[in-house]
Amino acid sequence: MEQPPEKVIETITAIEEMAEDVLADRRQMIELDRKRQKMREAASFNFSFSRSLRKDKTKQKKWVCFGNMFVKLSKQQTVCLVDKEFDSLDEEICNIRTGIRAKVNKLRDSESKEEIRGFHLQALTKDELESLEAVL
């Protein structure tokens, strides 16, 4: 059964918009992961930096760069801010990942393709992994 050209163009346009939305989310997730890796580097440096600070008995604040701004903070404040930022990036990446799954399913439905097998798999949590290791 042949469809009118307007309907075909409308369908293809909708599919392309959904695909572009998935790609945009994927790019955003990659960018957030880069930021998360930078935060991990900062946390690692801060840990090694804190070991050298233990020898230093002065309570001086150190300069820290946040975005385009330098701020003078104590070691404890710096560690707290890095941890909060790391957690917020993890949460945002997880939310985007969940949204991508739904968008990909909707895209595949509109393309009349089957659902991807194993696409909804999730990693085991730490507690689940420990209980599994206890059983094995």
Descriptive overview:
Helix 1 (5-55) packs antiparallel against helix 2. The protein has a two-stranded antiparallel ribbon. Strand 1 and strand 2 form a beta hairpin. It has 3 helices and 2 strands, in the order H-E-E-H-H. It has one domain (5-113): Helix Hairpins (Orthogonal Bundle). 71% of the residues lie in helices and 7% in strands. The longest helix has 51 residues, at 5-55. The chain is mainly α. The protein is elongated, with a radius of gyration of 23 Å.
C-alpha end-to-end distance: 57 Å
Largest sheet: 2 strands, antiparallel
Shape verdict: elongated
How many alpha or pi helices? Answer: 3
Strand arrangement, major sheet = 1-2
The CATH top-level class label? Mainly Alpha
Question: Concise description?
Answer:
With 136 residues, the chain is mainly alpha-helical. Helix content is 71%, strand content 7%. It comes from Paralvinella palmiformis.
Question: Key features?
Answer:
single chain; Helix Hairpins; mainly alpha; 136 residues
SSE blueprint and pairings:
Layout: H1 5-55, E1 62-66, E2 69-73, H2 75-110, H3 126-135
Antiparallel strand pairs: 1-2
Helix pairs in contact: 1-2
